[in-house]
From TrEMBL:
Pfam families: Aminotran_1_2 (PF00155). Its EC number is 4.4.1.13. Residues 61-386 form the Aminotransferase class I/classII large domain. PANTHER family: CYSTATHIONINE BETA-LYASE-RELATED, PROTEIN MALY. The keyword rRNA processing does not apply. This is cysteine-S-conjugate beta-lyase. Its cofactor is pyridoxal 5'-phosphate.
Amino acid sequence: MDQAPRDAFDHADPLRRLTLDELRLRTSMKWRTYPDDVLPLWVAEMDVPLAAPVVRAITEAVARGDTGYPSGTAYARALADFARARWGWTGLAVERTAIVPDVMLGVVEMLKLVTGPGDPVVVNCPVYPPFYQFVTHMDRRVVEAPLGEDLRIDFTVLEGAFRHAAAGGGRAAYLLCSPHNPTGTVHSAEELAAVAALADRYGVRVVADEIHAPVVALDATFVPYLSVPGGERGLSLMSASKAWNLAGLKAALAVAGPAAADDLARLPEEVSHGPSHVGILAHTAALQDGGDWLDALRGGLDDNRRLLADLLAERLPTVHYRPAEGTFLAWLDCRPLGLGDDPAAVFLDRGRVAFSSGPLFGTGGAGHLRLNLATSPELLTEAVRRMTVAVA
Ligand SMILES: Cc1ncc(COP(=O)(O)O)c(C=O)c1O
């Protein structure tokens, strides 16, 4: 009975519901890395209250004392239902999934299944910095295939990287980021099919990080890599953690295409010990019942992309921003401002606003920064004001 009013909030833009004072009470990385005079728009946490079904799932689990080890396939079934309803994809088979502790550890495990020590892993730079850190930490080699000027996959460059990677004699993999962090690019079905064809030609295995999949503009469509022709040999990592702000509630799913089922079957059993039971309950509730909240978020992010474009056009017109369809991230080319390789450092120092440093994203990152759009329009406006002050 008392659930209806609480859930009714899930139709309202969650980005407009918390004040700066409320956010500063948070103890997570976004809010505790810098002193209180710094406005943080860096790490990929969102300034949102949780969706009501997620709060309910966690609260009820705690009330039951249901904080033991995970069991069952509810998370995978919820993801399969979500994939069918949202993306029209009926090919996500629960028996070809495995629960992993989080997306990056899942990426590591998938790469261990299809490559060996010293083998090459192709990435489209600029890209999420842990792609470099985790891949090198597991004793694989990163091969860069920079995105094109339009921030989309450059197929000539990708083919060159695949050829180079395959020529070494080892087992090559391609770590696809879909949608792409930091640019927000949502790859089309045609592009993904072209990836699959190219990967097949060069014997490269595709591991797709699809963590941002649910977070696309209201008029955009995400295409799962495993759903495109040729994607059957792929492995994907999915999670509710980015879309519903659940990074602290660890859980994710590895999904195999039909022709990769044998690979996933080799995943050691102990990997399933890592995820949190309460995390799985939260992720499952988000996918099952968090659709209204997600759509309100997507609408709010559409507003924020337009707002950022308008603010920059008005106050910092030389900064180049190409609003994209996916993620809650914005990739800003600040080179015309002449602030050197790391403009985020200058904005932090002079403007007291924190962004992610472009050079960490690999080749193509110098002179750029990544801004986290998942905040209120007021704080986004304040962030651009601080940028303006920093270069005045
Ligand atoms: C592309 C991408 N992959 C993985 C992650 C991290 O996910 P997890 O915390 O589940 O490892 C992020 C976080 O921002 C991300 O943007």
